[in-house]
Specification:
Largest sheet: 7 strands, antiparallel
Strand order of the largest sheet: 1-7-6-5-4-3-2
Helix content: 25-40%
Order of helices and strands: EHHEEEEEEH
CATH architecture of the domain at 8-38 and 78-153: 2-Layer Sandwich
CATH class of the domain at 8-38 and 78-153: Alpha Beta
CATH superfamily of the domain at 8-38 and 78-153: START domain
Number of strands: 7
Radius of gyration: 17 Å
Number of helices: 3
């Protein structure tokens, strides 16, 4: 198996600077609002140590009550530029125990950011669609979250009469 064969790359342009986009990855309360492939799938932050060699563990709960858990280690964190972390599903997921690697890059594009997610060491070619669909959906949710947050921050305060 080679990384080139069993990897996916997903990109999004976001009309915010890298530091704002990066912040959505480093704050647990932010992650609970967008880090799921679908609004009906809740994410619970079980462990979150956002430091190099720090660990994370997220539990996803589906509408039918099923749960799946992913865990990992932050291998490197370069603020506002790049995150590299392991991504390992726990049993009973069909990919349980397979140590894959995710790199999230934040590249300034004028006043905005191009975010690139590269997921390497996928278990087989058939799994590429699953991971591409998941990351695409999560980036869509990230974009919605950041847009809503920016809109909320820009709203003027109302004065009492």
């Amino acid at each position: 198996m080679s990384d080139a064969t069993h990897a996916i790359v997903v990109r999004r342009a976001i009309a915010m600077p890298p530091e704002q986009v990066f912040a959505a990855f480093r704050q647990a309360d932010a992650l609970t609002r967008w880090f799921s492939p679908h609004p009906d799938i809740a994410v619970e932050i079980v462990t979150f140590e956002f430091t190099p060699e720090g660990t994370f563990r997220f539990r996803f709960t589906y509408p039918d009550g099923r749960q799946s858990v992913v865990r990992g280690v932050y291998r490197s964190i370069t603020p506002d530029r790049e995150l590299v972390f392991s991504w390992v599903w726990e049993a009973p997921d069909r990919h349980a125990g397979i140590d894959t690697e995710v790199t999230v890059s934040f590249t300034a594009q004028g006043p905005g950011t191009e975010i690139t997610v590269t997921h390497r060491r996928l278990p087989d070619a058939a799994s590429k669609d699953r991971y591409a669909d998941g990351w695409n959906a999560q980036l869509d949710r990230l974009l919605s979250y950041l847009s809503a947050t920016a809109t909320h921050l820009k709203q003027p305060e109302r004065k009492s009469p």
